[in-house]
Design a protein that fits this description.
Strand content: 25-35%
Helix content: 10-25%
Low-confidence stretches: none
CATH topology: Peptide Deformylase
CATH architecture: Alpha-Beta Complex
Order of helices and strands: HEEEEEEEHE
Oligomer: single chain
Number of strands: 8
CATH superfamily: Peptide deformylase
Number of domains: 1
Strand order of the largest sheet: 1-2-3-6-7
Number of helices: 2
Structural class: alpha+beta
CATH class: Alpha Beta
Length: 165
């Protein structure tokens, strides 16, 4: 029910593998509200995952609809509880940033299109096909649930990580 502080690398909690969330529990519902509030309050974020606010549960939110890269292909605000990618096709390299790594961006190779299975906040089973920037954002957030940062995905740390200006 509030904007939360975002953990910053090298906080060890960002490297933990998250446990499944109990759908519909008061804890999960409060977590979702806090994730959405924190994501939108940043003014620039298109996603956030529970471990970024210190909660080690498999919950993330994504909304690329307000970003120029996500205007064409998006599903609006997505609340992803216990998500898993069940299909991934193609590949593309994109420059990524992260609220938990505020001073750097990096070139990361991701699938162009994904099929993601998750439960929404109402407990409904969802299978959604995403492409482009939305697919990249979801992959980025799901990495957080497995203790990975975009820094772990760059192929060459000397050439693919950039200091923010």
């Amino acid at each position: 029910m509030a904007e939360r502080e975002v953990l910053v690398y090298p906080d060890p909690r960002l490297k933990e593998i998250c446990a499944p969330a109990i759908i519909g529990s008061p804890e999960a519902n409060e977590l979702i509200t806090d994730l959405v509030d924190t994501m939108y309050a940043s003014g620039h974020s298109v996603g956030i995952a529970a471990p970024q606010i210190g909660i080690c549960l498999r919950v993330a939110t994504v909304d690329v609809s307000h970003n120029k890269l996500g205007k064409k292909h998006n599903h609006g605000l997505m609340v992803l509880i216990n998500p898993e990618i069940i299909e991934a096709t193609g590949s593309k390299v994109m420059r990524e940033g992260c609220m938990s790594v505020p001073n750097y961006t990096g070139n990361v190779e991701r699938a162009r299109e994904i099929l993601v299975h998750f439960s929404n906040q109402q407990g409904e089973d969802q299978v959604v096909r995403c492409k482009g920037f939305e697919a990249v954002a979801i992959q980025h957030e799901l990495d957080h649930l497995d203790g990975l940062l975009f820094l772990d995905r760059v192929s060459n740390s000397k050439e693919d990580i950039f200091k923010r200006k």
